[in-house]
Specification:
Rossmann fold; about 20% strand; seven-stranded parallel sheet; alpha/beta; disordered C terminus; OB fold (Dihydrolipoamide Acetyltransferase, E2P); about 650 residues; single chain; globular; 20 strands; 4 domains
Length: about 650
């Protein structure tokens, strides 16, 4: 048995129990050991049976006898027993657990934990938890459970594995013992910190090994970078590049000059110019006679990229193709193809792909990203994200990637942001009306949900808000945009808003990505407290895309330092750091939606542990072959970002 062995290899675990364990994400011995208690029962108060006091919750260690089922006159089913120790005896009572008469035998050594209360006017131990055999007094771990899988069962299996741990674990064996079998409460947190380090260390080691393997791949068609033509392309742009764009381009050009494929993450706020940087990389691929694929998560964003790239490449006579479920092309001779998941179709036979650009990469699964990379012969990979990611999180999530950051937004006037309580709603609406009347402003109104939710009755739903706002803003024409609309209908709504036919667009957060409408100058967000700062910042980035002052109104009746931070901070990275400290990564991004690694122990807030784990992994990587147990864990990708 080793840490990567299936959990079924543990004696007594069959197929049915393995399925139950899978509900707790336990598949291997490693998973079982890292299924940590979420609390502990303190059974250290061991009382003599003859000295108990009513109201006490305590532990009694003794021998059980006379376990019988009793049927009362009113139909209740009781299980009665007696526990005896050196001081005397104490009655024990359970309710409706008929099987217990078969569980215990007279004279069994037991540990009982429960509360003492009166029964038939005498003290008795009522419905205690029990363990047969060796004493389990002390701090007893309580684990996350599922139907048919109790903490008692988990304790027994985990303790069985712990006995052989020194032989199978390259990690903190002592810390695992201390978490599962703690001697004192004070030692639990330090042990968890050691295990968190292990988890981060494994992630970093796996990422570094992936990076090492990636860099060992030799390109069959190495790029030649024509600096003069790149400078001509840049000189032809209708704007001046920022210093961070120039730095990112320099880093990418260096990557493209290598004999191994690039694997770089380009992070930057909405409007920071990521697409232009990607376009320069695509131009180099074009000059080398190879195609570029730009993969976007939505049709809206794919269409937006298609328009932007078509404009940038028009002076150079490079046609840009668009491939989505709505726009299928038969001529795949385009040098640059922009598309959604449709680009990954087996029907698209592309054999000259030299560069793959993946936008908002966390919205694609591992298999999809691998499929994109497989479209060419080890193509260069550039992934992009507008999701503000603190450096600590980026270092953890994307340890196998090189990182470029665009930390400035060219030519943008900061969006004035206000948190608006319910008491000022009417005044806010009147101000918006004046903006529409005097400046012909266009407005986004974003709501968290499409339909009304019975469990979240205070949250504005887009459809209900649309109906309400039609009455309030009766002089304006309103549009409605949400994720349940068909792609064709979405495009139609957006086209009408862009053309000015709609003055107000009511939407769900589907507008978070891909909409570029310079005439929209006001963003209204309902239920703002339900969003993370990163997402609010991205939504705010939908306005302020011209030289006209823009505004963001955060409607919330819950006083929040988080929301107030948006009034004074305009950097996505800064806001992400604030939210990380206040709420944690899961709340910021929504783990299931954004593909963040779901750690068992570590947290992205473990600022000090992350660089330490990285440094330790870098130091150990050259000697990984000498550590077979650790190497096997890494090769099994035990902890790798989703």
């Amino acid at each position: 048995m080793n840490l990567t062995s299936p959990v079924t290899s543990i004696t007594g675990v069959g197929t049915i129990m393995a399925k139950k364990l899978a509900k707790l994400d336990i598949y291997t011995v490693f998973d079982l050991l890292y299924h940590l208690p979420f609390r502990y029962q303190d059974r250290r108060l061991i009382s003599p049976a003859a000295a108990v006091q009513v109201g006490e919750t305590l532990t009694i260690i003794g021998r059980i006898s006379r376990v019988i089922n009793v049927f009362t006159k009113n139909g209740k089913r009781l299980q009665t027993a007696t526990v005896t120790d050196s001081s005397g005896t104490l009655p024990v009572i359970w309710f409706n657990q008929m099987y217990l008469s078969q569980v215990f035998s007279d004279g069994d050594q037991v540990t009982l934990y429960g509360k003492v209360d009166f029964f038939n006017r005498k003290p008795a131990l009522i419905s205690p938890e029990y363990e047969i055999g060796e004493s389990s007094a002390g701090l007893v771990p309580i684990y996350p459970e599922t139907a048919g899988l109790s903490s008692k069962w988990l304790r027994a299996k985990i303790q069985n594995v712990l006995t052989s741990l020194p032989d199978i674990s390259p990690l903190h064996s002592a810390a695992l013992h201390q978490v599962h079998l703690p001697y004192s409460p004070e030692l639990v947190e330090p042990a968890k910190k050691n295990l968190a380090f292990d988890e981060l260390f494994l992630l970093q080691l796996s990422a570094l090994k992936h990076k090492q393997e990636w860099q060992s791949t030799q390109l069959s068609h190495p790029f030649t970078v024509d600096q003069e033509k790149v400078l001509q392309f840049i000189a032809n742009l209708p704007f001046t590049l920022t210093s961070s764009q120039n730095q990112a381009i320099k880093e990418i050009l260096s990557d493209l000059s290598e004999t191994h494929p690039m694997n770089r993450l380009l992070e930057g706020d909405v409007g920071s110019g990521k697409t232009v940087v990607a376009a320069i990389a695509a131009y180099i691929a074009h000059l080398n006679g190879l195609q570029t694929l730009l993969l976007a998560p939505t049709q809206i964003l794919a269409s937006q990229h298609h328009q932007t790239l078509s404009s940038l490449f028009k002076p150079f006579g490079v046609d840009i193709g668009l491939v989505t479920s709505q726009f299928k092309i038969s001529n795949l001779k385009f040098k640059i193809l922009v598309g959604t998941h449709a680009l990954l179709s087996d029907k698209l036979q592309l054999d000259k792909v030299g560069l793959v650009v993946i936008d908002e990469q966390h919205r694609f699964g591992v298999a999809q990203r691998a499929l994109a990379a497989a479209k060419g012969d080890s193509p260069h990979i550039l992934t992009m994200t507008a999701t503000p990611i603190p450096r600590t999180v980026a270092l953890t999530l994307y340890g196998d990637l090189d990182l470029s950051i665009l930390d400035s937004v060219p030519g943008r006037i900061p969006v004035k942001t206000w948190v608006v309580p319910e008491s000022k709603r009417e005044a806010a609406y009147n101000w918006i009306k004046s903006q529409i009347s005097n400046l012909k402003s266009q407005i986004f109104v974003v709501c968290p949900f499409i339909e009304e939710s019975e469990s979240l009755t205070t949250v504005k739903a887009a459809k209900a808000e649309f109906t309400k706002l039609e009455k309030i803003f009766s002089d304006s024409k309103l549009g409605l945009l949400h994720g349940k609309l068909k792609p064709k209908d979405k495009e139609q709504v957006i086209a009408k808003f862009r053309a000015g036919e709609y003055g107000i667009l009511v939407a769900t957060p589907v507008v978070e990505v891909g909409l570029d409408i310079p005439t929209a100058t006001i963003m209204v967000i309902e239920g703002a407290e339900r969003f993370g700062l990163a997402q609010l910042h991205q939504l705010r980035g939908r306005v302020g895309r011209s030289n006209v002052q823009s505004y963001c109104l955060l409607f919330s009746d819950i006083p929040s330092p988080r929301l107030k931070a948006l009034e004074t901070h305009h950097s996505g990275a800064e806001l992400a750091e604030i939210d990380l400290k206040l709420r944690g990564a899961g709340d910021i991004y929504g783990t299931s939606q954004h593909g963040l690694t779901n750690f068992k122990i570590a947290k992205y807030e473990d600022f000090s542990l992350i660089p330490a784990a990285r440094a330790a992994a870098e130091k150990l990587l050259p000697d990984l072959d000498k550590l077979p147990l650790l190497k096997e864990l890494v090769e099994k990708d035990k902890i790798i970002p989703a």
